[in-house]
Structures are given as structure tokens and as C-alpha cells.
């Protein structure tokens, strides 16, 4: 560690102002939500730390490719030219894609995402967040090249797999960078932006397929593939102007570089308090454990933190999000809606998701992370109502429209709570020492369950298999009830807490329901 001494902040008499408290004196943490932890309002925080917000937004932009790839997959399978090139033609002239190849095409990027997430765990702490973003952008650029010039199924699948590795690295890097480069008041907002850009990517994917999917040449699918090049190009151009994570510098003893990095994140204010907090957090974690690896994520207090992240991403998949987002258009069709209206409704689902994400900024910053408790309750009720409508006698188009509307409403509340909060909780819950590793485990979990859902959901809803249609909601409703119980008892409130405070609270084994009212000063008599 650098010999430079941390700044003395013992003269501060009030509770932590922006960044949280240090061990120099007891923190007076108020239970009143209006004044909890003396964290400034979002307006004040944006005014003082606008540059931090801009840099985090830049890193979040990489998440567009995750959502875009997710949405383009299903759209391309319906494009006539795509089926003609990568499928086979029946005697009647109809082009067909082999079912097994369709399944592989839908799943291969998710497998790549699992690999990329795990690779990012040890790589990012070694080379830093910026260079990790550079590596992921280069990998993605090469993978897009393979997809654009693919002449066979094998080459196309290889491109999808390699691109999936980059996509997994993008999500881990964006989430870790935002959680480490934002002041406490903006941390929830910036990490929630990751999900916003994922949904924007889904919306772009729907729009590109609608615009070019009916072309009579190979550019029907080549243009949607080529569009992805825009984002690695922007990332590779702009990343050099972004500061590195200050935590990464402090963990390597580069205190002067950390201070310069912090000065780039805020306007005209002293960074000494922020730097001191980072040094204290790193010092405490290094004293408690010397090694950093995946096995350390399952030891001591880090085990609880890892299990919370694992639980949140498990809830995410078992809430029914894969059914609603990936199969909404298909569900609209089998529910009896016209094909043209089905696609428009699919676009509407993702557009409403963008609105939900923007509204989530208020929920995350004002209500907090445990807003997931009522959020899950609402999602559970909606999915059960959708299932009940499917068993109502005299099922007709009016009921189908009602179910379709419920899917859109469900997606709004998902992107208001569970969707963005998954990223926020993933970025905040881990210790700074193991952040890359724990976040990697989180996104590996997300990809793992996505893979499972990609395999099983078609068997639930397809007319030639389970033919459950809206009754699929009973299955996800059952899991959602379990999720409601879990979030109530096991999800801590981390709003307004510095990482140093969270380390202390996990070390003291504070129950999840008491995080929001915990007063650290009470530990000291």
C-alpha cells in the first residue's frame, strides 16, 4: 500500500455528508427516511457529481448490446431470408430452420455470457475496469464480424458464442464501475442505468428487425448484425477519456492516481473525505482477509452477501421475465391476435419497459432497495390474474387482449422494481475486495437460469407441447410467492449506506429487516 497517509477527517462533527462515515467517530444514522444518513437529494447529488453520472452512463452503454442480442435472436428466426440461408427448403418452397439449430442459436450467446462473466471476475481486478471494457469491445467487434460474414450455421454460432463472452464481460464491468465510481446518493441511480440500457437494446432490436426483416436479400439479417458494431466503436473511442475506478487504484496503493480519478468525478469540491472513506474500506477488508478469489466469496460474511446476490438473480428468472419478454410476441399470436398487432404489442412491451426504468430512479433513490418487497407482490398478483383469465369459460379474443395488456403492465412493474434493482443490489451487496468476483457470480447465475428458461418455457407454452398459454402464469406465480417471502426476510436495505458501513453491518450480522434503522453508534455504548 502507498505510504501516503489517509486524510484526517476527525474534525467533522456531523454525520457523514455524502460518502458515509469512518471509524474516526460513531456515525449518527437516523431512522427518519427524510434525513437518513444525511445523503443529499438526487438534484443536489447530480449538481455536485454530474461528471460521475456521465462517466457511469458511458460504461452502462455497453449493456445495450446485451438487450439487443437478446431481442434480435427471436426476430431473425422469423426473417424469410435468414431462414433461406441457414435453413433448408421444403418441396413447396417454404424455408425451415431445424429445431435443434434454432435452440442452439437462442442459447449459445447465454452460454457465452456465463463464460464471460466468470472470466471477468479475476481479469477486471488485474487490469482494471477500463482495460476490461477495451478487451470486451475488441472481442465483440471480432464476433460481430463473424456473424456478418457467416456463410454456415457453424460460423454463425461461433460468432454468437464469442459475442456472448463479450456481453457477459460488459455487464460485470458496467455494474462494478458504477458502484465504485458513484457517490452514495447516485450509486443506486447509476447501477440501475445498466438495466435501462438493456431495455433500450431490446427496443432497438425490435425496431431494426421490423425495419429490415422483410428485405428480400441477405441484408435482412446482415444489417441488424452490423448495427452492433456502432457500440464497440463508441466504447473504444471514449473509454480513454474516462477515469479508472478509484477503488482499483487504492487497492494497488496508487493513492495519488486515486485522488486524480476522484477529482474527475466531481465538480470543484475536495475529494479528501471520499478518498479517506475508500482507504478505510479497503484497509478494513484487507485486514479481514488477504486473498481474493471465487472461493473467498463463500467464506465468512461474504457468503451471506454472495447468497443475497444469487437469490436476487434467481428471483429475477423465476418471476417469469423470460416468458414475458422473450415470448410475449409469440404469446400474443397464439392468444389469437393478428400477426401485425402481435409484433406491435411486442414493441410496446419493451417501450413500456423504458418508461418503467426511468420511473425506477425515484423508487430506488427515495423508497430504497426493499421496494422490491411490494414490487414482487404486485408482479405475483398480475401473473396469477393472467393465469386465471386463461381458465375462464368461454375464452375469446377479448380475454386475449386482457392478457396481453397484463403482460405490458407486468413489464412496467418489473422494470420499475425487480429489473433495475437486480443490478443495484448486485453492485452494492458485495465487498469491494471481491466485487468483480461476486458480481461475476451474480451474472453467471442470471445466465444460468436464463439458459434453463430458454429450454423449458417453449415446452410450457407451445401448442404441440404443454399448450399452457396464459396458464404458464400459475407456475411463475407459485415461484413469485416464494420470492415475496424471501425478499421480506432476507433482502437488506442498503440505500444511503457507504461501503464501509455495509462491511460493518454484515460483520455485525445485522438482520435484513433492521438494516434501514440500524444506528452504528449503538454498538459503541
Automatic annotation (TrEMBL):
Pfam families reported for this sequence:
Sugar_tr
Q: Which domain of life is it from?
A: Eukaryota
**MF terms per GO, please?**
carbohydrate:proton symporter activity
**Major localization listed first in the record, in broad terms:** membrane
Q: Which InterPro entries match?
A: MFS_dom (IPR020846), MFS_sugar_transport-like (IPR005828), MFS_Sugar_Transporters (IPR050360), MFS_trans_sf (IPR036259), Sugar/inositol_transpt (IPR003663), Sugar_transporter_CS (IPR005829)
Q: Which residues cross the membrane?
A: 52-68, 101-119, 131-151, 157-177, 184-205, 225-242, 307-325, 345-364, 376-395, 407-426, 438-461, 473-491
Membrane topology (UniProt): Multi-pass membrane protein
| Subcellular location as annotated | Membrane
* Segments forming domain Major facilitator superfamily (MFS) profile: 55-495
Write out the similarity annotation.
Belongs to the major facilitator superfamily. Sugar transporter (TC 2.A.1.1) family.
- NCBIfam families reported for this sequence: SP (TIGR00879)
Stated name of the protein: Major facilitator superfamily (MFS) profile domain-containing protein
